[in-house]
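step: validate -> pass
step: tokenize input -> pass
step: predict -> running
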Amino acid sequence: VQLVESGGGLVQPGDSLNLSCSASGFPFSSYTMMWDRQVPGGKRELIAHIGGGSNTGRIVYADAVKGRFTASRDNAKNMVFLQMNGLKIEDTAVYYCRVYIQRDYWGQGTQVTVSS
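step: predict -> pass
step: emit ->
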């Protein structure tokens, strides 16, 4: 299993970013994918859950990002995306995509910094 995130960067409050995660090593369309984030010294938190297999099309968001972030997947490209609009300073974190296949797998993460 390999997950590679990209698209992070330094932006100002109110700006947008689109994160990508490329997946390989497993039957991508069959598995639910997740986006997590972690602030320094904090716990990794789930922010979006993108259904796979029989749950394809079901997307659930954490309250902190609902209405601002949009998660999606492209099963033909084995990729998941996280469109982040209206970024706030508190969205600053390392963002990870994750899949659970007998255990959790994460990529290396991509840093998002929101600062004025």
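step: describe -> The chain has a mean pLDDT of 97.
step: cleanup -> pass
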